[in-house]
Amino acid sequence: MLQAKKERIELEWSQAKLARVAEMHPSSVSLIENGKMTPYPAQIKKLTAALDWQGNPEDLFKEVS
């Protein structure tokens, strides 16, 4: 599971809600979370801001247990 997905789940947000907050298409969020798409720099910035991620943005897209 990507750290981004873990953060979303901890916030109790659906993928649709994260997509709305990040101003992204829900399918893009799904593809990124499922490792089927590498996020573009603009998408990284949007997701980092939406999740209020304070760490290294690249860490948000690493696998965690």
Main pleated-sheet profile:
none
What's the overall geometry? globular
Helical stretch count? 4
| SSE order, one letter for each helix or strand | HHHH
For the termini, the CA-CA separation is 7 Å
The structural class is mainly alpha
**Average pLDDT value?**
96
Radius of gyration: 10 Å
Spans of at least 5 consecutive residues with low confidence: none
Would you kindly provide a written description of the structure presented here, covering whatever features stand out?
The protein is mainly alpha-helical and 65 residues long. 52% of the residues lie in helices and 0% in strands. It has 4 helices and no strands. It has helices at 3-10, 15-22, 26-33, 41-50. The termini are close together. The relative contact order is 0.24.
What's the short version?
This protein is an all-alpha fold and 65 residues long. It has helices spanning 3-10, 15-22, 26-33, 41-50. Helix content is 52%, strand content 0%.
